[in-house]
């Protein structure tokens, strides 16, 4: 299974780039962030024609998350984090796909800081940490994938000098990410490439892309039962160099299939996934859940 996360930064304007990437790389599961489109404008028909079922949670002009699955339909289990005081911000979507529970997230940017936006970022992070603990405790195969808007360490940025005051590098942001990992989650990129300078985001200013002056802020975290299946991880940097590209590039992992012997030795795994999915399953919400009919 190849699973990717991609901050598309406007799905309507960058749909051709998305479709080109899907056709070339053929990921099995995709988590999208920053749709920047109302749910009614989500391009379900175009994605269906490309072979992908979809769930989405849009928001006019801002935010928005979606989960795509090649050749199948994701089974929604949660829309939004528990106890979210501002559910109008579409930042979290969760679904089961081919035996894996996928959490797609777009963590708040938090700038400018200090101030209310940074406080909102940290509060949202706390709710994510609490929900992640519940997922971890379930024992289900889980991946938490998305734009975390956190540069975990100085090794994850080309140079810290011009970013010292940015919310992405603040000690509070990094400490929240560290506490999330401390639950036991595996940061797939770092586990696969412990010493490499790998970036997932290059902003549009000061020739950052051309100079490879990037940041690693898009992460895929794996639960204990899923981490042993990790085989590879990387970034499709070619997408960032395309005309009209997002300022992010797709970040991906590949997982080995579950063997028949593993299934027999751990029959409770599927039950845990079904339990975790059923416990948090949200009710259907009109067009957000529908897959476009094939023509």
Automatic annotation (TrEMBL):
Renumbered residue ranges of the record's region Disordered: 261-295
InterPro entries in alphabetical order: AP_endonuc_1 (IPR004808), AP_endonuclease_F1_BS (IPR020847), AP_endonuclease_F1_CS (IPR020848), Endo/exonu/phosph_ase_sf (IPR036691), Endo/exonuclease/phosphatase (IPR005135), ExoIII-like (IPR037493)
Active-site residues annotated for this sequence: 106, 147, 248
Pfam families cross-referenced by the UniProt entry: Exo_endo_phos (PF03372)
Cofactor: binding comment: Probably binds two magnesium or manganese ions per subunit.
Domain Endonuclease/exonuclease/phosphatase: 4-248
Site residues by UniProt (Interaction with DNA substrate): 248
GO BP, sorted A to Z: DNA repair
This protein's UniProt keywords: Hydrolase, Magnesium, Manganese, Metal-binding
GO molecular function list: DNA binding; double-stranded DNA 3'-5' DNA exonuclease activity; endonuclease activity; metal ion binding
Family recorded in the similarity comment: Belongs to the DNA repair enzymes AP/ExoA family.
Protein name (record): Exodeoxyribonuclease-3
Organism: Chiayiivirga flava
Upper classification of the organism: Bacteria, Pseudomonadati, Pseudomonadota, Gammaproteobacteria, Lysobacterales
């Amino acid at each position: 299974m190849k699973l990717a996360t991609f901050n598309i930064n406007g799905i309507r304007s960058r749909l051709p780039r998305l479709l080109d990437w899907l056709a070339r790389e053929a990921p099995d599961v995709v988590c999208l962030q920053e749709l920047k489109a109302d749910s009614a404008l989500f391009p379900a028909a175009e994605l269906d024609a490309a072979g992908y079922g979809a769930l989405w949670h849009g928001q006019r002009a801002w935010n928005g998350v979606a989960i795509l699955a090649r050749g199948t339909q994701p089974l929604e289990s949660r829309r939004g984090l528990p106890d979210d005081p501002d559910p109008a911000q579409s930042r979290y979507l969760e679904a089961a796909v081919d035996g894996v529970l996928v959490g797609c997230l777009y963590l708040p940017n938090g700038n400018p800081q200090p101030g209310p936006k940074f406080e909102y970022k940290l509060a949202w992070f706390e709710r994510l940490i609490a929900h992640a603990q519940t997922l971890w405790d379930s024992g289900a195969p889980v991946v938490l994938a998305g734009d975390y808007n956190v540069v975990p360490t100085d090794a994850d940025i080309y140079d810290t000098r011009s970013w010292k005051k940015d919310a992405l590098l603040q000690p509070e942001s990094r400490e929240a990410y560290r506490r999330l990992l401390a639950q036991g989650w595996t940061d797939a990129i770092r586990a696969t490439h412990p010493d490499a300078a790998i970036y997932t985001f290059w902003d549009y200013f000061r020739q950052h892309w051309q100079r490879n002056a990037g940041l690693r802020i898009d992460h895929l975290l794996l639960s204990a039962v899923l981490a042993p299946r990790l085989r590879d991880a990387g970034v499709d940097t070619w997408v960032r160099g395309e005309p009209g590209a997002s300022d992010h590039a797709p970040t991906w992992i590949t997982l080995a299939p579950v063997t028949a012997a593993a299934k027999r030795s751990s029959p409770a795994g599927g039950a845990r996934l079904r339990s975790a999915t059923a416990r948090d399953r949200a009710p259907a919400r009109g067009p957000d859940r529908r897959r476009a009919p094939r023509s």
